[in-house]
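User: Fold this; tokens only.

Assistant: Input:
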Amino acid sequence: MDLDRSVPVWPQVAEELRRRIDAGTYSAGSRFPAVVTLATELDVAASTVQKAVAALRAEGRLRTVLGQGSFVADA
């Protein structure tokens, strides 16, 4: 993923994660990758991924189960 570092990074990460969900890379009902895993993969800070995941959760694209992690919401 190519990032434009002249603008905030977390919205770009959120858009990439939305694209992956829409493309079926992360299918409905599946466990969403851990923040640290995504941060390493995308070469960004974990706090950046946390903001992106929070945005997806607010949109209803992800749901979080305490002690189990985040899951892709059913369509």
